[in-house]
Design brief:
By secondary structure, the protein is α/β, with parallel strands linked by helices. It contains 17 helices and 13 strands. The strands form two sheets. An eight-stranded mixed beta sheet has the order 8-7-6-9-10-11-12-13, with helices on both faces. It has a five-stranded parallel beta sheet with strand order 1-5-4-2-3. The structure holds zinc ion. The site of zinc ion has 9 residues, from α14.
Length: 392
């Protein structure tokens, strides 16, 4: 016996649970996942805030990645409530136990006067460029929008800033600030992959801009061709969401830490020495800062000189990409950041180690007597920063 469409829809609706718009809103507020099963051109006209978008045709195929937990409550919706009813039946058959369909769909939601948003549109080029991100439910169109809206400051367009900058640009981080007052030198090219032989003598900020904008025209490079001083650091940092520390000297490292603590900006730290490197995320409102570990810089005569120390050319690639990965996780709000953890890498052993870091209640920068400005803090000049813990 065959059914008409109308009969099939009625039969399906009898087997699933439907809710009205107000009930759907309550469920979503209580943690239910809203999933929009309409086609992309419909979603572009407007959608529920925070809804995941999985077109009906891909639902069975992608739902296990998007919602691995079959007990997770789900609110499905389409334009009028028919496609989401069939979708609810299908998810029920896949073992999802708490699935409802929004009766009347997005039309009923709007009719009830509930909030909705118009997702910003992507161009056809952007859809192709970021297609692999769109396929990840943890990123998706909404996550990609966060990346495009994000402002990340790279301190140094050198060994660490180069790989990090390239990958952040490729990933579509929309604004990349670059602080560097140096020019490209032929001894940089063994590891600083933003630059090239024909750019020797060019300011690194300019060379970084050329490389990054050629890779991804969505990215705006903001050049800061200066050294960081306590007189300019807050002004420069203030506009950014995340700072990536790719410096190689102690003076800058402390200054960057202190400015990030004062402005409550996460500081994604990396350092390299010979065959070893380390990475962490210092975010004083959520964990330790750099001074919780090392309250004061070592005297300059005890700090080795980077130019003499040497570094394996590929090593900053590994550490810089760990930093870039942390930056992207912070922007997207996914995964477990390296806050309170120091990851060390030994290239010769091919081994990673993790050290737990603790917040020091008496830390001179984020502890109970912390300063509220940089005015009273003294910063000594230069001196190469060796990763003290990695050597310990
Ligand atoms: Zn601290």
């Amino acid at each position: 016996m065959s059914l008409t469409y109308r009969e099939l829809l009625e039969e399906t609706k009898a087997q699933i649970e439907e809710v009205d718009a107000l009930m759907a809103q309550r469920m979503i507020a209580a943690g239910a996942r809203a999933i929009d099963v309409r086609e992309p051109d419909e979603v572009e006209q407007g959608a529920l805030p925070g809804a995941a978008h999985i077109p009906r045709g891909f639902l069975e195929f992608r739902i296990e990645d998007a919602v691995p937990d079959r007990d997770q409550p789900i609110v499905l919706y389409c334009a009028g409530g028919a496609r989401s009813a069939f979708a609810a039946k299908s998810l029920r058959d896949l073992g999802y136990r708490n699935v409802v369909s929004l009766a009347g769909g997005f039309g009923a939601w709007k009719g009830a006067g509930l909030p909705w948003t118009v997702p910003q549109k992507y161009t056809a080029e952007q859809r192709r460029r970021y297609s692999r991100h769109f396929l990840l439910s943890e990123v998706g169109e909404e996550g990609q929008r966060k990346l495009l809206d994000a402002k990340v400051l790279l301190i140094g367009a050198g060994g660490l800033g180069s790989p990090a900058g390239l990958y952040l640009a490729a990933a579509g981080v929309g604004t990349l600030g670059v602080v560097d007052d140096d020019v490209v030198d032929d001894s940089n090219l063994q590891r600083q992959i933003l630059h090239s032989t024909d750019r020797i003598g060019l300011p690194k900020v300019e060379s970084a801009r050329l490389t990054i904008e050629a890779l991804n025209p969505d990215v705006t490079v903001v050049g800061h061709e200066t050294r960081l001083w306590k007189e300019n650091v807050l002004e420069i940092f203030r506009d950014y969401d995340v700072v990536l520390d790719g410096t190689d000297n102690f003076a800058s490292r402390y200054l960057i830490n202190d400015a990030c603590v004062l402005l409550d900006i996460p500081n994604v730290h990396g350092s390299i020495f010979r065959f070893e490197g380390q990475a962490s995320v210092f975010h004083a409102s959520q964990g330790p800062c750099y001074r919780c570990l090392f309250p004061d810089p070592p005297p300059p005569d005890l700090a080795p000189n980077c130019a003499e120390a040497g570094v394996l050319g590929v090593l900053p690639g590994v550490i810089g990409l760990l930093q870039a990965t942390e930056v992207i996780k912070l922007i997207l709000g996914i995964g477990a950041p390296l806050i309170g953890r120091l990851l060390t890498y030994d290239a010769l052993d091919a081994s990673f180690r993790e050290l737990r870091l603790h917040k020091d209640p008496d830390c001179p920068m984020c502890g109970r007597f912390a300063p509220t400005s940089l005015d009273e803090i003294e910063y000594t000049d230069a001196a190469c920063a060796i990763p003290a813990l990695a050597l310990a």
